[in-house]
Amino acid sequence: MVDTLRILDHSPLGSFSSQKPFSFYAFFDSGLNVTEEMWSPYSITRQINDQISLAKALVIIAKESNNLQLAWEISAKIRKSQVLLSSSATRKSPLTMKESETVIRDMALLLCQAQQLHYDSATMIMRLKAKIQSLEEQVHSVTEKSSKYGQIAAEEVPKSLYCLGIRLTVDWYRDSKLQHEQMRKKSLAAGILDDTNLYHFCVFSDNILATSVVVNSTASNAKNPSLVVFHIVTDEVNYAPMNAWFSMNSFHGVTVDVAKFEDFSWLNSSYVPVLKQLQDSDTQSYYFLGSRGKDKTTPIKFRNPKYLSMLNHLRFYIPEVFPKLEKVVFLDDDVVVQKDLSPLFSIDLKENVNGAVETCMETFHRYHKYLNYSHPLIRQHFDPDACGWAFGMNVFDLVQWRKKDVTGIYHYWQEKNIDRTLWKLGTLPPGLLTFYGLTQALDPNWHILGLGYTNVDATMLENGAVLHFNGNSKPWLKIGMEKYKPLWDKYVDYSHPILQQCNVH
């Protein structure tokens, strides 16, 4: 396995400097020829380093064989060898045969002892392979658990936001003044909500605080807030607290209207494929039974029931939601606005339906990333290298939408994917299919993505009009990115009595 001792007859090896513990960066500091030192067959430093490398592997095997005494002895010899190398580096003088002989011999004898215990090369390779496989399985298990826990953390409603919803609901039904204020604002907005000369924005959300940030940041940066109209659609559970919040607060004079999708009579299972799929037992098992369902191999992120939420799919029904409007800007509830967005309404979409920022600067944001190209329907109709784009800030021409029956296109693909063979995750894949050939690329500065992850370019953050916290690390969660959270926090009034009562921070 190893020579018990190599008798060396050579000139001094030179010197190197380091700090304890020993590091090979020391060679560079001392001016030694590292390549010559480490490749020379007569180098004491190389011999000791080779012994250390082999000994470290044997420590693992000895522990695996439950020979803890041998493992302890080898570890002790490793430390002695490292101390010798470190001392030579510290004094900046070469190792001599006299000072090295005992350490090399003792280590060599111990390595020979390990060989006699059948820790030969073949055994080492087999055991190290087994160890590597075991570690890989552990890493896979930990990664899977981390993914599940991260998904759970992202899906759970923080106690503070739950408290906010409860308190606002209580206030709404207890304080008649709030309801009167809401009725007053609705009467004032009667002619405004359908006025096509104004700037109309829509947000579909059940998150009161996040929606408030979207509205507040848009209003704060608008040149003419009085021309801005926000159409908020939520669900029945959050309708009262959402109304309460926007009735008790004003946002620089913008008009805010709150509706709930349960009031849309046309939104039923006979018209909407997603609602029809919710009645299917296989779909219910896939999304709601989790590991108890039939399919246990699909990652948890693909099984999130939120992807069947009507608040997510309502973006494909905007012309029905706002039948009298001609153009709207759609905003996700996890964005923050830091520029005036009124110029979006004068952009020429060139008879396209959707104005969006493309995301194909990297290859993994092209169509083949999101769609199943082994399916003939996908292969026949869509270029795998077509450029992807992002939901979150979109300009929709509703005149062209109605003319080209875009909702009908969405229904076609949604029905074809009832068995989830065309795509698995979310609303972006059906969006890519629905708006294929109907999307106009916008200047990238209009929509900056990635604030739910790390390393967004600082210049992009400064120049971006809409910053998108896509990903699990939302700014209202404890797992949110601290470095980007101030961009969102500046539009939250943490001194608000209800926010303080609910410990929102």
Describe this structure in words.
With 505 residues, this protein is α/β, with parallel strands linked by helices. It has 2 domains: 25-119, no CATH class; 157-501, Spore Coat Polysaccharide Biosynthesis Protein SpsA, Chain A, CATH 3.90.550. The protein is 47% helix and 9% strand. The protein is built from 22 helices and 10 strands. It has helices spanning 25-30, 34-39, 44-64, 68-91, 97-116, 121-155, 159-174, 176-188, 208-221, 236-248, 273-277, 281-288, 310-313, 318-321, 367-370, 376-381, 398-403, 406-416, 428-434, 458-463, 485-489, 497-501; strands at residues 199-204, 228-234, 255-260, 327-331, 335-337, 354-356, 393-397, 439-441, 447-448, 466-468. The protein has a 7-stranded mixed β-sheet with strand order 3-2-1-4-7-6-8. Strands 5-10-9 form a 3-stranded mixed β-sheet. β9, α20 (458-463) and β10 form a beta-alpha-beta unit. α4 (68-91) runs antiparallel to α5 (97-116), α7 (159-174) packs across α10 and α18 packs across α19. Keywords: Cell wall biogenesis/degradation, Glycosyltransferase, Golgi apparatus, Transferase. Its EC number is 2.4.1.-. It comes from Cuscuta campestris.
CATH topology heading of the largest domain = Spore Coat Polysaccharide Biosynthesis Protein SpsA, Chain A
Helix content: 40-55%
What is the count of structural domains?
2
Calculate Rg over CA atoms.
32 Å
